[in-house]
Protein 1
Amino acid sequence: MVSYKVCGTSNLLEGNKCWEVLEKNCQLHFEGYGDITSALLSDDDCGLITVLFLEDLLQNSNGDYVTIKQSLSSYLNLIEEKAIKSTRPLIICLGSQLHQNIITEVKVNTERKDLNDWLTDKIAGLRDRFESVFFMNLNNIFYQHGAQKMFSTRNWYFGRCRLSLDGLNVLAEAVSAVIERISNPPKKVLVLDCDNTIWGGVIGEDGLQGLVLGQDGLGQAFVDFQKEAVAHSDNGVIIVLASKNNEEEVWNVFDNHDSMVLKRDNIVTAQINWNEKADNLAQIADDLDLNADSFVFWDDNPIERDKMKMLMPQVYTVDVPQNIIEWPGLLRSLDCFAKFKVTTDDKKKADQYRSRAAFTNNARNANDLNSYLSTLNLSPVMLPLSDAHVARAEQMCLKTNQFNLRTKRYSATELIAQNKEANNHMFLVKFSDTYGDHGIVALVSLNLVSEGLAFLDTFLMSCRVLGRHLEAWVLDQIIKIAADNGMQYLVAEFIDTGRNRIAKDFLTTYCFEEIGDTANAVSSLKRFNNNLDGHGYFLRVEDALIPNIEIYRGNN
Amino acid sequence: MELKDILEQTFKNSSIPDDIEHLKMGDLDEWDSLGNFNLILAVEQHFQIQFDIADMEKINSVEEIQKRIDDAISGK
């Protein structure tokens, strides 16, 4: 369990029930109240939650703004030093009751407001510089609940606590949401129903003109709901449809209803049929190669929601309110999609998933997979291990779990050394097709050992291109190298990691024989096999027939 | 919910005796001044009442709490 020290400029009521929401996932150690520096000076490796109230800071320096800025500057330096030393999260919360008087605030900023702005900027600066620093502006959070309700003068005079119980609850919930996101990634996929979810009415019964969508009232609420879905999509959330409907009718609404804000382009993939939604969702997860636990399911029908909760409890099924007008706001503020930052990569991700889903879906529908693949302009290119690519080669060694024969986690240095050996042939494969440029997706390291044996030290392929029989093309290149160097046998070793079953299937599909199992193995193969930890396989170089290679005809 | 439940929830690590009538601050390790503050807030939340600060300063026993709850509920 993660440990956090909690400190504040005033009493945060250690032991209060409000902190239980945080104590579910982390261990809290409260510092004595008012002590905001000890935790920064100590060397133990804890996260830190620090709650600052401007009023307390002012009180401590008798309202002298010059002194207070000086002491705050040294305090901020301590935070900076801590952020340099430790990678644990430093969560800084700042709150104040800024409002003093309407008249004194309409023409100028009060000193108090200036100090608040100055401190806000300084903390935001630290947050921008350090990944581990998080800044929670409590005034923005309290605003939604009403500052009057969040603060309590009575609690302050009674026991030096600035906040009311409501205020403490809001603070603890907010910190808990931040800590939850620090430890767990956001959800990736929003699964939407169609009828009575993205539009009002049932397309199969009400027809295009009968749908409640656009104009005023409820129709506007559905439009706004769609807008929020598009906003999530712009931030990299993958939008998919799961609807019990006739597929043409749904797309007809997308294409021909003027008020549709969601466009076909926003929809990464869809399962529109009469199957169980849980089955459809499993299919979508498969198409996208994502775990169902990164899915969020939004459906107006409580029966569909209950079924989803029962059949796929790992999916987050939103308990949607009955009243549609609450939907846009709820969808916007869902914590589960919120990210600390939206990067350009997030936006590209949706495109990547779209092409992956399109590929899997089209391939499933194509009658003859190989003739379909032949139309994709599959373009592999062999690259030597150059300085520019060594980082990617290392990354693939570390990350590839599925199509990986031996799963040797070589470092960049080890790869460079191996590549320099006279009997080693190492190459990378760069790959593109009509679905996009997939970059460098495969690594091969082939050792020419004695007695006509070529040993496949490494053959791995990124899972993002699986299903295109790229392995056939790569194997063809390997065989050519082996043949050009007068090798008779290509030897492969399968080391079972529990996750690389697909690599073993490759050996079987491509006609490798297991050395230990066959009388065909010559004695040199058998001797070699004795030195392997895993299972040795071989292929005769001279007469190797490579299945599926025809789809790469015209490439070399 | 009885006052006893609130005591149990507030002082999670203490065993609350069956007879709480004469229980007061200091009788439990957790019922120190901070614990007292947490207890008062929990009572307020549960009974939907607000004590004023003068009352809060007098509260240091189950008897005092019960008296003030009764007063608040009967509208005194």
Protein 2
Amino acid sequence: MPQATYTLIDTKIISSSTASITFTSISQVYKDLKIIVSATDERSGADTDDLKITINGNTSATYATRRLYGANNGIGADGGSGSWATGYNYGGVINGANAISTLFGNSEFYFYDYKSSAEKIWSTNGAATKNGPAAQITITGNRSSDTDPITSIKLEGYNSGSLRTNSTFYLYGLKNS
Amino acid sequence: MPTKTYVPIAETTLSSASNTIVFNTISQSYTDLVIILRLKGTITTHQDVYMQFGNNGSFITSGYSGTYLGAGTTATTSRITSTSDFKLTRATGITSYTAGGYIVNIMSYSRSCYKSMLGQSNVIDTIYPGTEVYCGSWANTTAITDLKFYASQDFAIGSSVTIYGIAAA
């Protein structure tokens, strides 16, 4: 009989406003990783915010993002080869300070082959609505030049807004056999 | 005891380069399928990756339709006119440098109904960065027992495809 997979590895629940969360010492027994986020932050004057991602604490690696988004009544794309950044990139979407503090944006991060010795890729998708006529849907493809197995993942508000109370972050491992 | 779900039911990792990965006799015990593709190419130019459904060893070349959002650097959308297969990515694919990641959901794959699919691709490199979303339908009520993924040129050694079964009850 096949075994079940999709195992909860770690949980972060924000009990008081904090700048970031980090999953550390990530188990190396899975094939892929998934993070489920339900969060809001204190980005001033904004309905939503992106999440900034740093892998393995590696702030010297280069990162790339390609994003598709729909925001309110418009759509767009950005990132890509012109947006290689050193130290971090972005994905998902959460609520910002313009939304009430009990309204959370929801996002998923899927990391492929996180133990490999190749450069890492991951995909994200997310949606956040405001208590009013504003919403954003985001899909990203991401890449890091880091070739070490992923043992830590740091997430924080992209625009320096601290994560608000009761934001949640769940890390799952997915086996392939 | 809770029903086990999200169960890995098949995986292929290439030990030699090939332009086709095939799965036969896929278990019919689940409601939906989630397929994770990690595909790396053997040439420097990009390729499109295709998916085709089959039943009892025979692949069916009609009834497919799809719409895509995203084309590398823009947020354009396009309807694909080919009906012989699903194109999992509209304008980009695999390179020799970076594996492309794909997440494909196939709903009600074992039921006697038209099938629908939803997917997301991630191919980020310095030549053609892109993430794309696609949805499609298959105008065929045949249960899907076989899956084929292919491109015009070989996938590299180490490319892999994992199929998960999602149980509803």
